[in-house]
Amino acid sequence: MDHYKNLLKVISIQDLILANPSNNPPPVSVDFLNRLSQKLHLNRGATAFLRKYPRIFEIYYDPALSKPCCKLTPTAMQISKDESTAINDTHPLVIDRLTRLLSMSLSKTLPLRAIFKVWRELGLPDDFEDSILSQNPHLFNILDAHEPNTHLIKLVTTPSHEKLTAAVENWRITECCKDDCSVDRTEMRFSFKHGYPPSMKLKKNLRAKVKEWQKLPYTGPYEELTSVKKRSKTGVMEIEKRAVAIVHEFLSLTVEKTVEVEKISHFRKWFGIDLNVRDLFLDHPGMFYLSTKGKRHTVFLREGYERGCLIEPNPVYVVRRKLLDLVILGRRGLRSDDYKLSSSESEEEDDDYLQETENDQGESHNYRTHLLVGR
What we know:
Elements: H1 2-18, E1 27-29, H2 30-35, H3 46-51, E2 57-62, E3 67-72, H4 74-88, H5 91-104, E4 109-111, H6 112-117, H7 128-133, E5 140-144, E6 151-155, H8 167-176, H9 204-215, H10 233-253, E7 258-260, H11 261-265, H12 268-271, H13 277-283, E8 288-291, E9 298-301, E10 305-306, E11 309-310, H14 315-329, H15 343-362
Antiparallel strand pairs: 1-3, 2-3, 4-6, 5-6, 7-9, 8-9, 10-11
Keywords: Hydrolase
Pfam families: PORR (PF11955)
GO molecular function: hydrolase activity; RNA binding
């Protein structure tokens, strides 16, 4: 998990470098990155972080600027180009993701700034306003909002919910067709796939509550809400299950089946979710894995992963995985004279490596041992 957190930081720096089109590959001042250290969550400063990943970043002295600069290595630049190619080759999938995302909104409308926050997670091209929205006026319409400098994306034609199948429905069909189906077929209609880590032992009463929750009917993410549920216990549980279904579908639409909690919270009002999104993830550890290390809280869809890898990889994920592999490698395997460090930085790197190794081998996670259905 530490590697993934560092990958997010690497991507943030990479985006800053690629935003400067002055050279090929484009550089950025190390001083500039150091000034942004706090915003980029670089606790030890940009210089120390850049030196941890010499396969991704190259630090050099620019005589024209009279200061050290940073650029992407040829390998990292090629990965970036391959990612752009993979995204451009999957425009139909991108359009489908946006259509589904807008269809989950009560008004079939979402703020453009919210889409911008998850453009990478959805596998959108960085110019999606021009290449996707403007090129498909029969599907998407950009409107001015009541607030200044705020725009909305509205779905021009809303597909019927029969044409939009939620990801969980595909799992139910597949599961029902299995000879060794683990869930009673009569209970499958409203069930979600659950999987718990070996370290988490469910008590008998908790298993019973999960089983009851699985049977509970709910309004699907693409279905219209015909009426507001009464604030009875059953009504609250149905509202909560619909919210779970929406965030489950949201994660299923992402390229890597993961998103930062803060980002998905921007859609809460538009999806009609009155509950705390973070609590939804904590209350359903069999469906979601919530990483709370550091300042960024990230949620993963459990069923999408096995042994740390996506079960059904897509072209964009395959390319991004190459960048993660470089993050995992760090400086390992490089000769000391290939990349010199001060003694203090070397000790810090050794400490980081030992800590990451311990976390990878024996990391234990605390979960809330109750579900919302039990309240």
